[in-house]
Amino acid sequence: MKQLLQEKVLLEELNKIIKEMDVEIYFSFGGPAEERVCLENINGTWTVYTYERGMMHHVKEYELLYGACINVIDQLAATNEMSEQFTEKFERTLRKM
To answer: Nearest to residue 72, comparing CAs of 1, 15, 33, 3?
Structure first.
């Protein structure tokens, strides 16, 4: 139960960051979507991938959702600086909780 609550909080914070980055149209949660960065829980493993032409590419698997969220932020950021800025904001918000 505690893990589900923590995952819910992580996903809520990730969605806030994605909206602030203004890249919602490039993200999909829960399943594949064409030309998107996708985050999906597949058999208990958090999986981040890009989806194009019906194929998964650049697949990364994570035991913990936290690492997957950081990967999503990194992939959606236009620059390294933007990635660092939003990753720090994500981490700072989580530390307050």
So the answer is: 15
Q: Give residues with Cβ within 8 angstroms of 81, minimum separation 6.
A: none
75 and 37 Cβ atoms separated by less than 8 Å: yes
Question: Radius of gyration (Cα) for the chain, nearest Å?
Answer: 13
In whole angstroms, what is the distance from residue 6 CA to residue 32 CA?
24
- pTM of the full structure: 0.91
Any idea which residue has 């203004």 for tokens? 22
Ranges in the chain, pLDDT < 70: 1-5, 97
Cβ-Cβ contacts under 8 Å for 18 (sequence gap 6 or more): 24, 27, 72, 73, 76
